[in-house]
Design brief:
This protein has about 240 residues and is of the alpha/beta class. Helices cover about 40% and strands about 20% of the residues. It has a single domain, classed as Acetylglutamate kinase-like (Carbamate kinase, 3-Layer(aba) Sandwich), CATH 3.40.1160. It has helices at about 15-20, 30-40, 60-65, 70-95, 115-125, 140-150, 185-195, 200-210, 225-230; strands at about 10-15, 45-50, 100-105, 110-115, 130, 155-160, 170, 180, 185, 215, 235-240.
């Protein structure tokens, strides 16, 4: 078996990835599949941190468009990420994978507060760490959370798992049949072309800290492991 290309990773999962075809809520078979893939990677000796979105339960942007106060709507979205994180933790621990959830908003009855040094210690002990509740601040996405936490824990790469696309395209491949898939891009290309891989805040943070990003499909089992082993799947976005 090949050795892993990366020692410490941040896996970014969208909330929609947990919903599967049902489009909302948490699909038990999907979350179990993701947990098994994470276990495969952890068994290679890779230190795994996870950031989960909350779009399968609530989107702050949706609440804001309904006339809700934006900060309130975003805080609700942060709580949705905690629900997803606890569900993923439960699936992982059912597989025998030691897991810790750390939240940016304190809720000690259900998870640890986020402490950078403690998170790194958990990773060094080969525990999976799930970062929940975003950055703890409204107006920031979970993409930005992934970029921020990756910089803080000095991760080697961010793996962005998508449930409906297998990389970065020049346009939406579902709408435009002429959309071209990119094998490699720079963050500047992503920002200038408005490719929608991550929001501009997250892209800038990754670029400034020279953190590579791999965008790939989560729907094909084993893809997380393939990405960690350095196989050419999806699209890689580099700092320069």
């Amino acid at each position: 078996m090949s050795s892993p290309k990366y020692k410490r990773i941040v896996l970014k999962l969208s909330g929609e990835a947990l919903a599967g075809d049902q489009g909302f809520g948490i699909n038990p078979s999907i979350i179990q599949s993701i947990a098994k893939q994470i276990k495969e990677v952890a068994e290679l000796g890779v230190e795994v941190a996870v950031v989960v979105g909350g779009g399968n339960i609530w989107r702050g942007k949706t609440g804001s468009e309904m006339g809700m106060d934006r900060a309130t709507a975003d805080y609700m979205g942060m709580l949705a990420t905690v629900m997803n994180s606890l569900a993923l933790q439960d699936s992982l621990e059912n597989l025998g994978v030691q897991t810790r959830v750390q939240t940016s908003i304190e809720m000690r009855q259900v998870a640890e507060p986020y402490i950078r040094r403690k998170a790194i210690r958990h990773l060094e002990k080969k525990r999976v760490v799930i970062f929940a509740a975003g950055t703890g601040n409204p107006y920031f996405s979970t993409d930005t959370t992934a970029a921020l936490r990756a910089a803080e824990i000095e991760a080697d790469v961010i793996l962005m798992a998508k449930n409906n696309v297998d990389g970065v395209y020049s346009a939406d491949p579902k709408v435009d049949q002429n959309a071209v898939k990119y094998d490699e891009l720079s963050y500047l290309d992503v920002i200038k072309q408005g490719l929608g891989v991550m929001d501009s805040t997250a892209s800038s943070l990754c670029m400034d800290n020279n953190i590579p990003l791999i965008v790939f499909s989560i729907t094909e089992e084993g893809n997380i492991k393939r990405a960690v082993l350095g196989e050419n799947i999806g699209t890689i976005v580099r700092g320069k």
